[in-house]
Design a protein that fits this description.
Layout (H helix, E strand, L loop, with lengths): L1 H8 L7 H5 L8 E5 L6 H17 L3 E5 L6 H8 L7 E6 H9 L7 H4 E17 L8 H10 L2 E5 L5 H13 L5 E5 L3 H9 L5 E5 H9 L3 E6 L25 E9 L4 H15 L2 H9 L3 E2 L4 H22 L5
Parallel strand pairs: 1-2, 1-3, 5-6, 5-7
Antiparallel strand pairs: 3-9, 4-7, 4-8, 4-9, 4-10
Helix pairs in contact: 3-11, 5-13, 7-8
Length: 322
């Protein structure tokens, strides 16, 4: 009888995983780790989805910005968190790039994390300071890069803007004329471009749309296959004569590998309900996103394919985490 009472009184954390999986989820606040500073595209989407999940779950979903280490620090914290569903990770294409760019990362991207959903996608946009840079077309910028040194800001080593900048270097035949200046996130790099401390960026659209619409930045081209409804006057890179610059960024949710199947299924279903909510979708689109809301069956192979795709580019270009 004494042994039976001990088991009944045991804390939930000491119970077997199978028993914990049957408990209502979530039973406390959920951490949603964003491995970038506030204000970037990953943060924007995480806050939209997290707020809706808080309503669905009647539990707080707390956004935790853990920037640094090229987004490795936040991802590592989630990879090593208890696989009980109470810790979520917001990622972008950056993390699929990191899998190759940082072979000695403290976690294994393919093994230690599981995909929940690709939430949304968006183009990047080639932008310059509207007052200090006379370039009015992508062709003007390419010519600049061939004749003088430019500082190109990015949101970090291996980030989509870094890949976009590398593609711009190759398209312009500029070699070392475009110097890579990495920042700890998209928002601070866009701020410095608007202040005139940088010459050019290939920026995620949500991170610079306010500065474009406010006239501080000039958009020269978008990297998507079609023009974007928020800036329909801006040509695509293909229209501007540089089709090799075409690329699309995206953001997704992941959890630690080993989350019990019933909990993972609930997180997936509720996350899809959150991103498909009419108000969330409208706000995401207003921010420059295309809402994808893919389930795990579609999202998991997509993330694997992206990891392989960018591994090839890194190998071809010799890109390093400089």
């Amino acid at each position: 009888m004494f042994r039976r009472r001990q088991l009944l009184a045991a804390p939930a954390a000491l119970l077997p995983a199978a028993a914990r999986a049957q408990a209502p989820f979530p039973d406390r606040a959920v951490r949603y780790v964003v491995p970038f500073p506030p204000g970037g595209l990953t943060d924007i989407m995480a806050r939209l989805v997290g707020q809706k999940l808080s309503e669905i779950w009647s539990r707080p979903v707390v956004i935790e910005n853990r920037a640094g280490g090229n987004a490795l620090i936040g991802a590592d914290a989630v990879a090593k968190a208890a696989p009980d569903g109470h810790t979520l990770l917001a990622i972008t294409m950056t993390h699929t790039v990191n899998a190759t760019l940082f072979p000695n990362a403290p976690y294994d991207f393919r093994r230690d994390l599981a995909v929940v959903s690709v939430l949304g996608s968006l183009p990047l946009v080639v932008v310059v300071n509207a007052e200090r840079n006379p370039a009015r077309t992508l062709a003007d910028l390419v010519q600049q890069a061939k004749t003088r040194r430019l500082n190109g800001g990015t949101s970090g080593n291996g980030s989509p803007p870094h890949l976009g900048l590398e593609l711009l270097r190759r398209a312009a035949g500029a070699g070392d004329n475009i110097t890579h200046v990495p920042y700890r996130g998209g928002a601070p790099s866009v701020t410095d471009l608007a202040a005139g401390n940088l010459d050019v960026m290939v920026s995620n659209l949500p991170e610079c749309i306010a500065q474009i619409q406010g006239g501080r930045l000039r958009a020269l081209a978008v990297t998507s296959a079609g023009r974007h409804p928020l800036i329909p006057e801006v040509p695509t890179v293909r229209e501007a004569g540089q089709p090799t610059l075409e690329m699309t960024n995206w953001t997704a949710m992941m959890v630690p590998a080993g989350v019990p199947a019933p909990i993972l299924a609930k997180i997936e279903a509720d996350t899809l309900a959150a991103i498909r909510d009419a108000d969330v979708g409208r706000r995401a689109r207003d921010g420059g996103f295309t809402v994808e809301a893919w389930d795990r069956a579609r999202s998991t192979p997509f993330v694997a394919e992206e990891t392989a795709r960018w591994a090839r580019l890194i190998q071809e270009t010799g890109m390093r985490a400089d």
